[in-house]
Amino acid sequence: MFRPMFAIAFVILITIQGLAAQAQDSGKGQDKNFDVRSSVGDLHVGSDADARKIGLPLYPGARPKSDDESRNKANLSIFTEAFGFKLVVASYESDDAPAKVIDFYRDKLKKYGKVLECRTQKHGGDIDVHDNDKDSKESKELKCEGDNTGPVTELKVGTEDNQRVVAIEPNDHHSGSTFALVYVRARGKQGDI
Q: Distances from the Cα of 101 to the Cαs of 54, 67, 115, in angstroms?
């Protein structure tokens, strides 16, 4: 669950007068980005998300989820003097069974710490981000939510302020699996992203 502070900051950054905004289109016409830079802070909203920007390799043979590519990837960054927030999400599909994808990412996530394996009913549950008014250096450990049952396996590593999540489930349309790669990073006044 994202906190109201991030929504308010987003609105403030967009409505401040005198901001220079520029929509950018990559040469292929696929990735559309909106960037704002000002003395108050920086904002990036784009569809330029992929496994590399999440800090993970792409599962061999995986391809972007085909139902609507532009809705299956997002890259959002907000940086101000008071806080910073980055969210990168990319969805893919594979002809391989979920167990193979789970084994691959369980191994790849280990470089970021202890990997937590959870079960959920659906892709895309809540992501909690620590945002105390105090600039706390403590970030809460990740945990499994709900009753820890369901067809979706979530592999999580990190803390609420700095986490990577891979959510894998059987593909509804045919054999194989779909999976989402997620990176979330937040900071208060102190710290870098």
A: 16, 20, 15
Residue-wise pLDDT for 69-111, tens only, equals: 446 788 788 888 788 888 999 999 999 999 999 999 999 999 9
Distance CA 108, CA 179 (A): 15
Report CA Rg, the chain. Answer: 17
By DSSP bridging, strand 32-37 and strand 41-46 are antiparallel
Least confident of 76-80, 125-129, 171-175: 125-129
Q: Which two tokens stand for residue 159?
A: 């803390």
DSSP class of 141:
B
Amino acid symbol at 21: A
Q: What is the largest CA-CA distance in the chain?
A: 52
Q: Are 64 and 34 in contact (CB under 8 A)?
A: no
pTM for the full model? 0.74
Which pair of structure tokens corresponds to residue 56? 């993970």
